[in-house]
Amino acid sequence: MNEAQAYDIISDTVLAVLLASAPVLGVALVIGLVIAFFQALTQIQEMTLTFVPKIVMIFVTLLVATPFMYGTLKSLSDTVFDLVENGGL
């Protein structure tokens, strides 16, 4: 295994982690911004207002996006295991 193969594996790993975490992080960002705008417009500064909707939507997103996350990580692990099997590592 040379440096180019190691770089490819590392870049594929970073990309897989970013893709797998993107749905949850995106939903958390959007919900956080919506709640922040709502609080700014209404002058309501309740701490549970920021926490409860965000955590509920994160759990819903995890339930919906789990097949996508599984597929992304499975393709990465299949690639790495094929490299190990063929002596690439």
TrEMBL record:
<feature type="transmembrane region" description="Helical">
    <location>
        <begin position="51"/>
        <end position="70"/>
    </location>
</feature>
<dbReference type="InterPro" id="IPR002191">
    <property type="entry name" value="Bac_export_3"/>
</dbReference>
<keyword id="KW-0975">Bacterial flagellum</keyword>
<comment type="function">
    <text>Role in flagellar biosynthesis.</text>
</comment>
<keyword id="KW-0969">Cilium</keyword>
<dbReference type="GO" id="GO:0009306">
    <property type="term" value="P:protein secretion"/>
</dbReference>
<keyword id="KW-1003">Cell membrane</keyword>
<keyword id="KW-0472">Membrane</keyword>
<dbReference type="GO" id="GO:0005886">
    <property type="term" value="C:plasma membrane"/>
</dbReference>
<keyword id="KW-0966">Cell projection</keyword>
<protein>
    <recommendedName>
        <fullName>Flagellar biosynthetic protein FliQ</fullName>
    </recommendedName>
</protein>
<keyword id="KW-0812">Transmembrane</keyword>
<keyword id="KW-0282">Flagellum</keyword>
<keyword id="KW-1133">Transmembrane helix</keyword>
<dbReference type="GO" id="GO:0009425">
    <property type="term" value="C:bacterial-type flagellum basal body"/>
</dbReference>
<comment type="similarity">
    <text>Belongs to the FliQ/MopD/SpaQ family.</text>
</comment>
<dbReference type="Pfam" id="PF01313">
    <property type="entry name" value="Bac_export_3"/>
</dbReference>
<feature type="transmembrane region" description="Helical">
    <location>
        <begin position="15"/>
        <end position="39"/>
    </location>
</feature>
<dbReference type="GO" id="GO:0044780">
    <property type="term" value="P:bacterial-type flagellum assembly"/>
</dbReference>
<dbReference type="InterPro" id="IPR006305">
    <property type="entry name" value="FliQ"/>
</dbReference>
